[in-house]
Amino acid sequence: MVDFNIATVLTPEIAMAALALILLAIGLLIPPGARKGMMPLTAFSLLGVLGYTLFDFFHGTKALFLDGLYLHDQFAVYFKVLFLAAALLVVLSSGGYVQKLAEHRGEFYSLIMTATLGMMIMAGAGELITMYIGLELMTISFYILVAYLSDDARSSEAGIKYLVLGATSSAILLYGISLVYGLTGSTQYTEIASGLGANLSPASFLATVFLLAGLGFKISLVPFHLWAPDIYEGAPTPVTAFLAIASKAAAFAVLIRVYLLMMNSQAFSGTGQTLLVVLAALTMILGNLIAIPQTNIKRLLAYSSIAQAGYLMVGIIAESVAGVKGVLFYAMIYVFANMGAFAVATHVSEKQGSDQIKDFAGLARRSPLAAVVMTASLLSLAGIPPLAGFVGKFYLFSAVMDSGYTAIAYIGFVMSMVSVYYYLSVVKVMFLGEGEGLPDIPVHGAVKFTMVFTMLITLAIGIYPTPLAQMAAAAAQSLIK
Amino acid sequence: MISSALPTTNSLLLPFILLAPLVAMLMIIFLPKDESKTIKIVAAIGTLISLVLSLYAFFAYDRVLGGMQFTLTIPWIPDLGVNLAFGVDGISLPMLLLTNIIGFSSIYASWNMEKRVKEFFALLLILITGVMGTFIARDLFIFFLFYEIVVIPIYIMVIIWGSTKRVSKEYAGMKLTIYLLIGSAFLLVGMIALYLAAAKNGQPTFMFDQLAQRQDLYSPAFQKVAFGLMLFGFGSLISMFPFHSWSPDGYAGAPTAVSMIHAGVLKKIGGYGLIRLGIFVLPLGARYWAPIIAFLAICNVLYAAFIALAQKDLKYVVGYSSVSHMGYVLIALAALNPTAMTGAIAMMFAHGVMSALIFSMIGFIYEKTHTRNIPDLGGLAHQMPRLAIGLMLAGMASLGLPSTINFISEFTIFMGTIHVYPVLAMLGIFGIIFTAVYILRMIANVLFGPRRPEWDHLVDIRGPELVPLVICVFVIFITGIFPNILLGMINSGVYSSGLAKVLETVSQVKMGGLF
């Protein structure tokens, strides 16, 4: 084994844990008046960890340690970069929103840090129990974050719903894990794969389906998606953004490992593949069709994110390096596109006090930047060139067609063109009228930076995707040897 | 050839043509909102530069040498095999010139625009850039990228600056967008299938010429399916029957400049794509589908002409007439011989200039009289003689009067198709009679007749408003009287690009068609 120091490999995780505690302490110690500095402080610490992780991606030692309990490959580091970037953008765009919360501002940022740490552990986990610990760390942080607006009934309701449904899904996941352990005597992905072997017994099928259900809940795969719209609508908007983007990506990181490393035995492939194809098709169709009549921007983005999960599933179905690369690529651009949309949604709802789509009327005049960023983000989600979403979908669907699943590609492309309909209905509201009599919505500071940055990245990757494609390819190859 | 060496002036010509409107667009974004005159002038200069440069390209192109010229190739997405490859040949160069003629005219056709000027011209310039990009791309991926760029600006322009008549502008805009996007979804599947089939030898590519060379990798069965997908995508775009219904509604809802560009050039991307991708790359598929295309084409010609007869709104008449004329392009493509192919490309050019002229004239009529309803109009030639001349000449071109380029192209098309599809071609020729009926009736009812006092306050078009008229009329007649300017170029394209050879090979293949 490569000679390495465990501390250097785990630096980002250790730093995140320490930062979470420090931010908690600072939030308690400093007087309420000085708490404005919490946002920049969190942002800069995240930036530091992100910078280190990026360096680690290209130059760090890659190793597995504790007998494969924890993996430090480029795949894991790629996802860590993704989570940290998402967390950073969420923090940057949430400054004004969090400022309005009467108390507990420090805890907000601290919880974002612990949720991110949970995701990072999920991406690095080489066996089921470690993965479960990461997942619970993330989920429990989210239980609190979702219910953060203590005086808002919808937020509390969303928190309770998420707690009940999340606990149920965790129970199912745990049951699946226990079945797998019972069948194979191991919790480690590679050992489970050899333990499951070529025979598909009812018990092993049940176990894998339970695992899929538990993870499917997190990525809001149909039919485990019903929680998403209510909770997205009720949660504070920055939390919704983080939930829709990073927690979904984290579950995908686990799903890729579990599915491709653990369940890739001959026996499961056939049945499991059919199951996944059907679920992915349903997710794309239902997510997109139910999004059409939505009138609340957060619900619309919730259904759109369900549909996006369907597109990402397509890359897993491909079961190839190209497919995993597609998922990695798409997950990254999904962060920026969705973050742009949520930054605008957060800002507008903060100024208007409401999340209805009709409140975006005349945004093109009232805040041209926000309108343009929203348009670019939505069109990237719809996969319209020259924005990044198009290249991402191209990677995903060409991979799945290469593996011989043409039908799902038809569904994917037709549904993404259908999605243009509801994305454009938002664009229509923003551009159609001039919003006479409605006040201007100025955009400043960190929020403005977030909007411009996400839009530029979305555009730049769409026009010249090569650098990100190379990163994704390297990460995908580190996973599938 | 020059991929590694420093780009020469010639290879930078096309990027300059492409970037000029884009630079103008960026300048407009930073101009203050109320400087509407400056915004219009910047837009006009941007498109003028493109027009002049593409004229230079048109005349500097070496017709004897033929093939792709002014090429520029930069590896872009190596893992997919995408190259940022530009270049023009005798097929794409007329389309590029057409785009710039119409783009430049459309700026002047919108000269009186006073509502949200800045956004309008910025979007219009993006639209023009997108259309140009599709014609100069030598790489399928880049082609598709540019094609889809245009969809969204059109939607926004229709819903903001469009007009609500028979259908609301929101409906018209969404219908147009969704039709084209669903078409392009199938196109995308076909494109990926083609790409994967071509990548079987281990070297993925999107270059049109490379894709065309790898004939042995595409089985006849594959070609049939892939061409069918392309036909659905490109057929929706060129408003092939029965996927045409977006076109009249869309044109009626759209502002003048968008109607001009959409009917003038954007639609032609469908025909161009069928040639460049369909016939070049999938000749057997084209052969298989040709009888179907020919039949649908004649449905286009006759069905749309009949509907045009019954229309009362000027834009609907022209909208259906453009659907009808696309039938001629389609039947020429289906004939699969060099003569018909030359005619098809000439027809796309001729119809483009003609419909830009007619839409700009109708735009002026609507702007001045606030109606497009034919029974409400009449005798406009008394008050607006210059506008009347423009509309009449456009009408003459539309029904293919000799000395217009439209006559030359229709004649060439029928020369090429009559021995392949004798019955259908005869039916197509009858279509011209219906065209004459609805065009002449429109002209008679709108322009002539007794002087109507309610229009006495109207001012004839003048100054910048004359630009579309002068340019389009000049192009229609100069290429109609000296057809070699255009046909020589197209001919060189059809033969030197290898299209004629592909057609010859495919005509010798014996395979059961659909009929």
In short:
The complex is a heterodimer of chains A (481) and B (515). By secondary structure, chain A is mainly alpha-helical. Helix content of chain A is 78%, strand content 1%.
Protein model, in words:
Chain A is mostly helical and 481 residues long. Chain A has a domain at 265-481. In chain A, 78% of the residues lie in helices and 1% in strands. Chain A has 20 helices and two strands. Chain A has a two-stranded antiparallel sheet with strand order 1-2. The mean pLDDT of chain A is 87. By secondary structure, chain B is mostly helical. In chain B, 72% of the residues lie in helices and 3% in strands. Chain B contains 22 helices and two strands. A two-stranded antiparallel sheet of chain B has the order 1-2. In chain B, helix 7 crosses helix 10 and helix 9 runs antiparallel to helix 12. The longest helix of chain B is centred in the C-terminal third of the chain and has 32 residues, at 338-369. The radius of gyration of chain B is 22 Å and the shape is globular. The termini of chain B are far apart. Chain A binds chain B through residues 364, 375, 379, 384-386, 390-391, 394-395, 397-398, 401-402, 406, 409-410, 413-414, 416-418, 420-421, 424, 427-428, 431-432, 434, 464-466, 469-470, 473, and chain B through 76-80, 116, 119, 144-146, 148-149, 151-152, 155-156, 159-160, 170, 174, 177-178, 181-182, 184-186, 188-189, 192-193, 195-196.
